[in-house]
Structure formats: structure tokens, C-alpha cells
Design brief:
This protein is an alpha+beta fold. It has 3 domains: 4-96, 2-Layer Sandwich (Phosphorylase Kinase, domain 1), CATH 3.30.200.20; 103-304, Transferase(Phosphotransferase), domain 1, CATH 1.10.510; 311-411, no CATH class. The chain has 16 helices and 13 strands. The protein has helices spanning 60-71, 103-109, 114-133, 184-187, 195-210, 220-228, 242-251, 262-267, 269-272, 274-277, 282-300, 310-320, 326-340, 346-349, 364-381, 398-401, and strands at residues 4-6, 13-17, 25-35, 38-45, 48-56, 81-86, 90-96, 136-137, 146-148, 154-156, 163-164, 171-172, 191-192. The strands form 4 sheets. Strands 1-2-3-4-5-7-6 form a 7-stranded antiparallel sheet, covered by helices on one side. Strands 8-11 form a two-stranded antiparallel ribbon. A two-stranded antiparallel sheet has the order 9-10. Helix 5 packs antiparallel against helix 7 and helix 12 runs antiparallel to helix 13. The radius of gyration is 28 Å and the shape is globular. The chain starts with a strand and ends in a 16-residue tail after the last helix.
Length: 417
């Protein structure tokens, strides 16, 4: 029976019954998930409940080739694939159905038992090590792509971005996947290796620790720019397990050569979990980490303007090193001054100096303080703020600023022309 399309009032759903005579395949109208490349419905394969992923506008030949490779993968922590069906405008993949949903939703809604929490980290490591040993890079490892079955076994899924690789050759990665979990070399569209999966694994560990998606309050452009240049990094609760935090920091290193392999991570589990085993009130500690991470997501790093501390302090020396970025350098300096002098407007601070930031100009600090003092005095007196200022090479004196408050133009006798 051909594919029938049903369009209810709310959303488009699909119904497929007995796609062909070779396999007994059924797809119900119950949608259980969706993503950028398609939707996932509940179905049956040879009488067994399965998940059916429907993808549209795709290269059927390429997907068919990938499916044949992935079908050969047999591992406890890799999703099991059953059948592939290609049509003219869409394709269907029948795979294992996991009743408990994905890891991201689960850690946000539940406090995982400490033993299970550590076991799940082992399972993710084992699954990714198996993929790398079979020369496969996942390229889109994240919490939503890690499913939980009825036996609390994790299954790594969604291999739509996966590729094979040659150990000695790096490849250039297209701009695909989820930006929050992407490695810096991917965001910069540079050549990549299997270490991109290690970076994403570190992001998943941070998500399991804090219960939140990394950089969830940062917009797309900010993640691409700041993470791609090593400016925006993860923040940790002050009482987080030191050894486990060290593991995450190693995995998300800006330099891919510093990231450990999954084989090394697997061999050092006793060290990574040493501090965690000593925690007695695990549930209370997890709740404390989750609450603190809410402040991180909304405040310290990923607030509306993260340039306040981390973004500016780390990016200013890097940008100043390149003289061609003088316009970006000037913008960063204005943002820095807006933090230091929050009572004054950015247009007033723009008149303090156009040469270089205060860390590299010995006159900028005095000019900034004088401008702020002048601005405050004029606000109190109700006089308009004059944007024309003297730019002599001598350091301005704070006691002279109050004498220039009047609206009268300076004369030659004043010595300021």
C-alpha cells in the first residue's frame, strides 16, 4: 500500500501500512520525536514496537550506504537498526524504540542515582570507543541523541551526521549538528578528527553535572564567534568534584590535541569518580549544582551581554594582537567601559579616547575618570554634555575639569587652543 498523507488541524502526520511484501513494516500516526532532518513515529517491525525516523529531501543513495554500515554495528550502547526504506521524496529508518526518552530531558526532570549516574557515563564512553575503533565519527553527540531504554541502558543514536575516517587523515567538517555541543574547529570550519566527539562528550558530562544544556541562553552567533575562538568557556559550581571537573576541562580543551581519547578516559574511571564516591548527600548536592547552574546560564557567562567579564578580558589581548581588527578593538573597549562606568552612557564614554584601550594607553584611565566626573557634574547642574574635548598629549588634571563646565568657547588666553 502506498504512503498516505493525513493532514489534521494541528499538524501533518503519516500512516504507512505494509510498505512492501518483503518486510512487515507499519508506521502509526503517533509522533514520538522530531528534529532538523525529520520526524520520528512509533511503528512495528515484524510485530515488534520500533521507532521510525522519516527524513525528507535527502540523498537516498548516501543514506542507504550509511545505513548498511551502521546496520553492522552491534554494541550494547549503540541503537539497533532494523530496516531501511527509500521512497522518491523521503526515506524511513526502522530502529530500536527507547521508552524513557533522551538523556537531556531525563537529567532535567530527575535526580539520577549516583551509581546509575556513573554507570551511564561509562556506557557513553564504551559506546563512543566502539565507534572510534570501527573508524566512525559520530559528529553530533549530544544529550538528545542519547536514549534510555526500559532497562536503563543508554543507546547512542542519530547517525545522520556520522562519517567514516582514516586514522592518519583529518577531514573538513560541514556546518552541521548542534552548535551548543560543537567543537571550536567545527565552528570555524577547519579540518577535524575524531576528537570532535571527545569535545561533545565533555559537553554531555557538563550537562549531566548541572542539569542544563551548555550555553542555552547564548544566541547562535555568539556561540559561533566566542566558542570558536576560545573566548566563551564552561563555568563550574564552586563545589563541583575536582577530578570530574578536570576530566570535563580536558575534553573541552580548545586545542584538540590536548583532549584525551575515549580509551584513556575509560582506563582512568577510578580517578575521575574518586571525589564523587565520597559525596554522602548526593541528591542534595545535585540540586545545589542545578540551582547554581541556573545562575551561570542566566548571569555569569550567558546573560544578555556576556562581554562583561569573560568575553572582553579574554578577547581583548587576542584582538589587539591583530592590528587589522581595530574596529572590533574599539567596540570591546566601549563595552569594557560600560561595565566600569555603568552610570554614564556609551555615547559619552565614546568621547574619552579613540586611540587604544586603557590597558595599553597611559592616558585613558585619567580621561575616563575625568569624563565621568564632568558628566556627573553636568547632570547635576542640568547643563548639556559637550562632546568636544581637548586631546593634548599631557595628562589632564582632575581639578581643571570643573573649570571647563561652562558653555563658553575657550579663547587663546586659556591656553587650550
Amino acid at each position: 500500500m502506498p504512503l498516505e498523507r493525513v493532514e489534521p488541524e494541528s499538524q501533518t502526520q503519516w500512516y504507512v501500512n505494509s510498505l512492501d511484501n518483503e518486510e512487515n513494516c507499519e508506521v502509526s500516526e503517533k509522533r514520538i520525536g522530531w528534529g532538523a532532518r525529520g520526524e520520528v513515529f512509533e511503528g512495528k517491525f515484524n510485530g515488534k514496537i520500533v521507532a521510525v525516523k522519516k527524513s525528507t529531501n535527502c540523498d537516498g543513495g548516501e543514506i542507504s550506504k550509511e545505513f548498511e554500515i551502521l546496520k553492522k554495528l552491534k554494541h550494547r550502547n549503540i541503537i539497533e537498526f532494523f530496516y531501511f526504506q527509500q521512497k522518491s521524496t523521503f526515506s524511513l529508518i526502522f530502529m530500536e524504540y527507547c521508552e524513557k526518552g533522551n538523556l537531556s530531558d531525563y537529567v532535567r526532570a530527575n535526580v539520577i542515582d549516583k551509581t546509575m549516574w556513573m554507570e551511564w557515563i561509562r556506557q557513553i564512553t564504551d559506546g563512543m570507543l566502539y565507534l572510534h575503533e570501527n573508524k566512525i565519527i559520530h559528529r553530533d553527540l549530544k544529550g538528545p541523541n542519547i536514549l534510555i531504554n526500559s532497562n536503563d541502558i543508554l543507546r547512542i543514536c542519530d547517525f545522520g551526521e556520522s562519517r567514516g575516517y582514516i586514522e592518519s587523515i583529518s577531514q573538513k567538517m560541514t556546518f552541521r549538528g548542534t552548535f551548543n555541543y560543537m567543537a571550536p574547529e567545527v565552528l570555524q570550519e577547519k579540518k577535524y578528527s575524531k576528537k570532535v566527539d571527545v569535545y561533545s562528550f565533555g559537553m554531555v558530562l557538563w550537562e549531566m553535572l548541572t542539569g542544563h544544556t551548555p550555553f542555552s541562553k547564548c544566541n547562535l552567533h555568539r556561540i559561533i564567534y566566542a566558542v570558536g575562538r576560545g573566548i566563551l568557556t564552561l563555568a563550574f559550581p564552586p563545589n563541583s568534584p575536582r577530578n570530574f571537573e578536570r576530566l570535563i576541562r580536558l575534553c573541552v580543551s580548545y586545542n584538540s590535541k590536548l583532549r584525551p581519547s575515549f580509551k584513556y578516559i575509560q582506563s582512568q574511571f577510578d580517578i575521575w569518580f574518586m571525589d564523587i564516591m565520597d559525596i554522602e548527600n548526593w541528591e542534595g548536592q545535585c540540586n545545589e549544582w542545578h540551582e547554581y547552574s541556573k545562575e551561570i546560564q542566566y548571569g555569569k557567562i550567558c546573560k544578555e551581554d556576556p562581554d562583561e567579564k569573560l568575553y572582553v578580558k579574554k578577547s581583548t589581548p587576542r584582538i589587539l594582537f591583530n592590528p587589522q581588527r581595530k574596529y572590533v578593538r574599539s567596540a570591546l573597549e566601549l563595552r569594557r567601559r560600560a561595565v566600569l562606568f555603568s552610570s554614564s552612557s556609551s555615547s559619552d564614554l565614546n568621547e574619552t579616547c579613540n586611540s587604544s584601550p586603557s590597558d595599553f594607553c597611559r592616558y585613558c584611565r585619567a580621561r575616563s575618570s575625568d569624563t565621568l566626573l564632568l558628566y556627573t557634574r553636568r547632570r547635576r547642574s542640568g547643563s548639556p554634555f559637550s562632546k568636544s574635548r581637548s586631546r593634548s598629549n599631557s595628562r589632564p588634571q582632575s581639578e581643571d575639569v570643573g573649570m571647563k563646565v561652562s558653555n563658553e568657547k575657550p579663547t587663546k588666553e586659556d591656553g587650550n587652543i
